[in-house]
Specification:
alpha+beta, 2 helices, 114 residues, Alpha-Beta Plaits, five-stranded mixed beta sheet, 26% strand
């Protein structure tokens, strides 16, 4: 099962996310749940770093896979980049939530408020 954890502060701003595990919906290379989540998360991470140039920390397990962490969203100093980053994280949140509704046995979303 994929565990998709969202970290938000008391105001509802996104601090970061952690994604762990594998869906187990299908065989390796044919798992549509894993593919969908991977595409969304990697696309969001690339948008943060390559398009927005947001100074966030991204950690990936390149060897085993099944792990990606984005941190530092609240540390963004530029108001414009901060707002765009928050919008992107809200989009990711809603997209993963839609997948979770259809594939509850394969993905679990956890929201942690600080």
């Amino acid at each position: 099962m994929i565990k998709f954890t969202i970290f938000q502060n008391s105001e509802g701003h996104y601090e970061g996310i952690t994604v762990t595990g594998h869906a187990g919906f299908g065989q390796y290379g044919e798992d549509i749940v894993c593919s969908a989540i991977s595409a969304l998360v990697i696309g969001s991470a690339n948008t943060l770093t390559e398009l927005l140039k947001a100074p966030v920390s991204i950690t990936v397990d390149e060897i085993e896979g099944g792990f990606l962490k984005i941190e530092g969203l609240l540390d963004i100093q530029s108001p414009e980049i901060f707002e765009k980053s928050q919008f992107l994280m809200q989009h990711l949140h809603l997209s993963v939530q839609g997948i979770e509704e259809s594939y509850r046995s394969y993905i679990q979303m956890i929201i942690k408020h600080k």
